[in-house]
Amino acid sequence: MSSNPSSNATEKPPIIWVNVSLFTITFLITVIGVPWYALTHGFSSALVIGLIGTLVFAGLSITAGYHRLWAHRAYDAHWSLRILFALGGALALQNSALHWASDHREHHKHVDDNDKDPYSAKRGFWYSHIGWMLREYQASRYHDYDNVKDLQKDSIVMWQHRHYLVLTVLTTIGWPIALGLMVGDVWGSLILVGVARLVLNHHTTFFINSLAHIWGKQTYTDRNTARDNGFLALLTFGEGYHNYHHIFSADYRNGIRWWHFDPTKWLIRLGSWFGLTSNLKRTNGYQIEKARLEMQFKKAKEKAQISCETTLATLHDEFDMVVAKLRDYYQVRKQLLDLKRQAMKQNMHLPSMAELKQKALTLRTAFEQQQREFAQRLQLALRGPQAN
Ligand SMILES: [Zn+2]
Ligand SMILES: [Zn+2]
């Protein structure tokens, strides 16, 4: 290694030619081959439907299977669903579920640490998007599966890991050929459903590691680079609410509001109605709201650069009052939900419910009132100490 202090270029690890060739060739076929084939032969509507169906199947296998089920254990899934995810994951060509989950757990544990986070966003867009897979950056820990010991007990995960290569060939090449034979256009299917679909699956997943750490709002925390971005959620089957995900990663949801586009969450929820998924984990509403309020307060303080000690102390007191009111409301809300669940289970009517509902409503109004007063106080502080 050079002793020249001006040379900060530590030798780069060797290039992984298999990956470089795969990403380059599939990308070139997609941007050149697809338009050429469309102009000279055309794609049938059956193939376009095949493209969309395969894209969604492989994409959801990564988000609902690899990510939320296996990497985060956010819910449990029936063996039939796990087999589908294992096949869809091989079709998405993103390594085995065991390997993927191991990398992803490192990403969460050491997020933004350039040495330990496998796709640290602090190393730039290119590196976090695709660069991390082009060289032997992970050589030292490639076969270290210590952080996924729980998954090694899942026979479907291990079956997929052992037979990954065969499953990949069967799904990524075998399936487009089979579809092509069915619709009478094997080359068209290989180009569109095989290659272009793979490129779309790859880059939509890669966006979560790159763009979702660069572009969007830090709604719940600024302790890492993860961002919430509704537009990215559209491209990533709901994984765009990445700021929420990094702080509450055990939650089976990424988009927590009903209007948030999160088809992965909908699929998991839908599965629970048919007994295919169970034990769906959700973060307590109080913790979510508290994190959001803390972040709002922090941003306002930074923006105003409030230097007056008295103003700051008053604001902190008021903030504590808002959080206390929030806690009171959520405590009663939890009691109410527990009672409802109990009543539903035992098929009985509980007379105390009406009283509790009223109490919850009163506490919610009190919290909202306190929150408004705090916002006004913050506005005054933002205008400067004289205004106080
Ligand atoms: Zn992330
Ligand atoms: Zn995650």
TrEMBL record:
Sequence similarity? Belongs to the fatty acid desaturase type 2 family.
Segments forming domain Fatty acid desaturase: 51-268
Compartment(s) of residence? Membrane
Source organism per entry reads Pseudidiomarina indica
Tree of life domain: Bacteria
Instruction: Please state what the protein is called.
Output: Delta-9 acyl-phospholipid desaturase
Give the transmembrane ranges: 15-39, 46-67, 79-101, 164-183
Q: Annotated Gene Ontology MF terms?
A: oxidoreductase activity, acting on paired donors, with oxidation of a pair of donors resulting in the reduction of molecular oxygen to two molecules of water
One record GO biological process:
fatty acid biosynthetic process
Cellular component GO terms, alphabetical = membrane
Instruction: Supply the InterPro entries for this chain.
Output: Acyl-CoA_DS, FA_desaturase_dom
Record's bilayer topology term: Multi-pass membrane protein
Keyword hit for Hydrolase: no
